[in-house]
Amino acid sequence: MANITLNSSTYAGYFSDVVIASSVLGARTIENGYITLHTNVDDKATAVFADSAVSIDDANGTFSSSSTTNLSEIKFTLGKYMINAEIDYKNLDNFWLASQQPRGAAGDYAAPASLEDAFNAFFARKASLFVGASIWSGSASAITQFGSSQGIAQGGTNAVTGLIDKMLADSTVNDVAVGGTYKQTISAFSKAADAEITVTSNADFAVGDTVTFESVVGSSGTDWSGLSGKSHAIKSLVSTNKFTIELDTSGFTGTWSSGTVTCINKTNVVSALEAAYSAMADSIRLAPDTAIYVPSRIAAAYKMAQAEAAYSPSVYSDSYKLSYLGYPLYEIPEMRPNAIVVSRVANLHFATPLLSDLNSVLIADQASVNASRTIRYRLDFCFDVNISDGKSITLLS
Q1: What pLDDT is recorded for position 153?
Q2: Which residue from 36, 38, 68, 357 has the fewest beta carbons nearer than 10 Å?
């Protein structure tokens, strides 16, 4: 590849829209219609909802201004991100040649029509994965969750708070109380190379299960509180109510004070779903877009529980379309473990300015700029998420 020829130095108009849409709107949660989409949000925006207190009087023919209308609102403050990459001609040659190779025995793979298309497809996949994980877990956790396996890192201070943390911070959201074996109060949390945790019972737990902490408080510092929202694997079962995790707390400052731990597996998943279902707001039980959202670990546990009940237990031969008592159960791989959300799609919101100078794509050959044999790629995109009508949302986490 002695010479690099680009069709254009930048993407504009329709072509930019296509690239941005693929990057920002390609997340599974958005593509499948699991969230309400707002594509005309500028840097900062507010969505207003009417929430009126109404007085119903006797029909005596008089008018009295006795009702009040409070306009509730949700705000979007867009997190602004970019992907930038510089690829030298040698690596570019390998990249482009690889993208042109036929796939499959029949050679039925359609290679990209141009170098720009190959770039855009590659970086759009990275961006959509980051966006998808950020929707539920927040941008910082998205990097922790997928960064090392997908080669994604984050620089700068821009941050998007995910839907789960938005729900935890909203006092009107119905948080399912401690109960069963799936969500328990921590009665002791040791300082050790492998921290030991004491709960009411670990009878339903198994080595390798993932536990998630919430509302963890320590006597000083942030070491203990920093565990809230984090998940760790169970390393060993010590006794009937104690287990260890792969976390070194020996250097933590202060001492542990309080907190909860959630662990949902195939043994207790039906009980956890029953608790979330029972706590569902009556106002959304008949809404056509009400759904139950779970991460892949819970979806897999539910499938196993159903399979064992149906085939008892040696042959599993079907892939279930997940639902619970008539409500669709949406599997979200990017959700953090051990979380169950019951909500209308209408109450979960994703915002981005699809047509905006905040979103742009630029591909530039540096040979004519500084005589370097490299191609530079830059993709700018921005988004935010929020919830509305928190009182109709149920969260088990």
Answers
A1: 74
A2: 357
